[in-house]
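User: I'm writing a short methods note and want a consistent example. For Transposase, IS5 family, I'll paste the sequence; you return only the structure tokens, no commentary, since I'll be parsing the reply automatically.
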Amino acid sequence: MRSKTPDAAMQPDMFRETLEMILNPRHELLELARCIEWTRIEAVCGESFVADFGRPGLPT
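Assistant:
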């Protein structure tokens, strides 16, 4: 499963807070997530996961 890149032109919803607004930015796991090269992990692991094989995901 690959993450979708957020649209830069997307307006924030007035009644919904983003996850970044809710979480503590100094939390250890968030600091660790900033150090990880996510594009490299997607490139390496993405070969193992394809969108057109297996059971389809549940609708959201």
